[in-house]
Every structure is written in C-alpha cells, then in structure tokens.
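Internal tracking record. Fields below are filled automatically when a chain is submitted to the structure queue. Please do not edit lines marked as system-generated. If the sequence contains nonstandard residues, flag them in the REMARKS field before resubmitting.
Queue: standard
Priority: normal
Entity type: single polypeptide chain
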Amino acid sequence: MIIYGCDFSGAKNPEGKIFVASGRLDGDSFTVEEVSSCEDRLDLYCLIRNSRAPWGVDFPFSIPEYYLGQQYDSSWDKFIQGAYEDSREQFKQRFGQIHSGKNSRDLRVTDIAVDAKSPVSSTPIAMHAMLYGARRLLHNLRGEAAVYPFQPYREEVPRLYEIYPGHGWKALKLKSSASDALQAIPASFRTEVDSGFEVIISPAAAAAVDARGQANLHARDAVMACIQMAYCLRTYKLDSGEPSKPAFASEAEWKLRMHEGLVVRMIP
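SYSTEM-GENERATED OUTPUT FOLLOWS
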C-alpha cells in the first residue's frame, strides 16, 4: 500500500514550506521512498485528489467545540462549507487574540492529548492562519476525499487523517532539529514504539530531506507524518468501513470526534 505524509504550510506564501513524503507499507515494514516539495497548495490539492491513498496531514481539521458552537452551530459540515465566507483577516477576527495553550476552552480535547497548540491561536504561532488554508483545502476536496473521522471510509478516494508530527518525534524521543534525527528514526522506532515494525528510509528520500547537507525541518516532519500514518493504519485498522474507537484515543476524544476531529498517533 502506498501512503503519504504531508507537512502543511498555512502561510500566505507557502513556497518552499509544503513537503510530501510517500512510501510503501508491506506487512510489518514501511519504506519511505520519496520526498518532494509543493510550491503551492494547489499542487497539494492535485496530488491528494489523484492519489486514491491514505494521507497523514499535519493541519487541524476542526476547531474547539466552544468555538464550533459559537460560530458554526456545532456543525463541522457548516464549518467546512463556510470556507469562502471570510477573508483571511475576517477569519482571524472571529476568534480574537488567543495565546496557544493558555485556556482549555481554546484547545480541542485531542490537542490536549498530543500537547498541540490551539487551532485558533494567534500567538506565539499563528495557527489560525494554517487553519484558514487547511479549511479551504478540505472544502475543495468535498466529494473527492474521505476525511477521518467525519466522513465514512471510501476505498476508491483519497483518505485524509490528521497527524501531528511533533508527537511522533516525542514518542521516538528524538528532536527533529538534531543533525542525526533522520538516521536515528529506525532504531528509535524499534526501541520506543514497536520492535516488530521496521522503518526504512531510502537513500533517495534521505537525500531529498537533507539536501546538500542542510537539514529541512518541513521535509523531516513530512517523513514523520508518513511513518506515523503507515504505522497507525497497520496497527489500529483505521482504513476500514467499520469505525471503532482506536486504542490511542480517549473516551472524551471519541465522544467529540464528529465535532473536534481526532489526531491519529502512535502509542509509545
């Protein structure tokens, strides 16, 4: 099975900041085969639409229940359908000045579980900017992709899963910025996550990630998203027509999944 991982940029100019990793899952082994950059979100849209494969992408699919209720009548469908109702600045003003992680109301339950930033925060990182672009991408993929856990599994279309690469690096007890981070992934995966699952990073993928000896953190996060996606599909049977609570999710997360979504992750 071919699997994709994406490090997404919500910046106004995403050039050089969107990376896609792809690999092949074969039983208990996963090989990262390629890593490439997208100059524009339109390129990413075309890649996803034409893939018919699972994708682990690192942007929030929804917003905290409080804001979903206040702004979109507690409906994820309405949230996505309204992607073109606001300008970037108007969308920002919907939530005001929010510092990530300072108030549980500003975090989804699944954000708290993986120690992620608030999707609607404006500082210290403008996560709402990523959310703005991501929401439009999901809007344009309506009918052409199945978005977990909001929409039922469909084998004939691409399947999108929310991934947080930062949680993967922490699970492996690695820092993405370390010079040897990429080379350390296979051994750390066996030690920290699952000794029965083999991770292989091809020479071509490694060369594309750290081109000319310069570490590219966006590309490294795409690789991590791809690895997480492969392992979670294999281990938790996410790609199936009968959705059930995966082992990594809490009861609270599962209860709110149709409002807040669910970050897919490995259990160390």
